[in-house]
Design a protein that fits this description.
Elements: E1 2-11, E2 14-24, E3 29-33, H1 40-47, E4 54-59, E5 62-63, H2 67-71, E6 74-78, H3 89-99, H4 105-114, H5 119-122, H6 131-143, E7 149-153, H7 161-177, E8 181-186, H8 189-195, E9 198-203, E10 206-211, H9 213-218, H10 223-234
Parallel strand pairs: 3-8, 3-9, 6-7, 7-8
Antiparallel strand pairs: 1-2, 1-4, 4-5, 9-10
Helix pairs in contact: 3-6
Bound molecules: adenosine-5'-diphosphate and magnesium ion.
């Protein structure tokens, strides 16, 4: 789905991403994991077309030349939903459809049912919803234009454990049912194991190891891999 060749990003003298090359396979879930500041969000923002990197980024087999077109095939979800506070949930969800002149009222109902959002919740403002409900709205909004890819930046991090576990199940189910390609960012190893077909562990803007969790355990590419796994296990 994506092919990245020597993708790097700098902000002034800060190197957010060192040259990274990777493939994102269609229909699979890739999880980017690593400590805070390791470049996970930057890499996801590159895939969302929100940050222009050095290097070559291909989407669907061809280098991206027209982000306008590609962006419609990508759903982007951030922590706590990233909703506009002055619009109701429904207005947030329908924003892009309105912009494009699409009548997607029926699709809202379908996706609301899939994410267990109730009618009265759709007509509330973000501040009148719980964290879990806001995140559901963010997910519905991202799915409205039926994207090929879902990019999720710590979608569950702002939630309490019970809500988080429930929404994790639902999200995995949605990704599977709708057969989406997904790239999910997290700093939680348990979340990474739960969602991933493949894991990419990052540190300092670079990829430390790529593979399955079993690979990380059996064949750590660097002492940091073991250190990261052990630190999480302790909790
Ligand atoms: P992560 O998501 O893994 O926590 P980020 O990708 O957000 O990491 O950040 C990687 C590095 O790039 C950090 O050092 C961060 O401070 C820096 N960074 C990210 N975005 C910006 C920005 N817009 N301006 C300057 N520095 C940034
Ligand atoms: Mg981040």
């Amino acid at each position: 789905m994506y092919s990245l060749q020597n993708i790097s990003v700098s902000y002034g003298t800060t190197i957010a991403l060192r040259p990274v090359s990777m493939e994102v396979e269609p229909g699979k879930t890739l999880v980017l994991i690593g400590p805070s500041g390791s470049g996970k969000s930057t890499l996801l923002r590159v895939m969302a077309g929100l940050v222009t990197p050095e290097g070559v980024l291909a989407f669907g087999g061809a280098p991206v030349t027209d982000w306008q077109r590609v962006r419609r095939r990508i759903g982007y979800v951030i922590q706590d939903g990233g909703l506009f506070p002055h619009l109701t949930a429904r207005e947030n969800i329908l924003l892009m459809s309105r912009e494009l002149g699409l009548d997607n009222a029926a699709r809202v109902e379908e996706l609301a049912a899939l994410t267990h959002l109730q009618q009265d919740q759709l007509d509330r403002y973000p501040a009148e919803l719980s964290g879990g409900q806001r995140q559901r709205v963010g997910i519905v909004r991202a799915l409205m234009l039926d994207p090929d890819v879902l990019l999720l930046d710590e979608p569950l991090s702002a939630l309490d454990p019970v809500i988080r576990a429930g929404l994790a199940d639902e999200l995995k189910n949605i990704i599977g049912t709708l057969k989406k390609t997904a790239v999910l960012v997290t700093h939680s190893l348990s979340e990474a194991r739960f969602f991933s077909d493949r894991l990419v562990l990052m540190r300092g803007g670079a990829v430390v190891q790529e593979g399955s969790y079993a690979d990380f355990e059996a064949r750590p590419a660097d002492p940091f891999v073991t250190e990261f796994i052990d630190a999480e296990r302790k909790l």
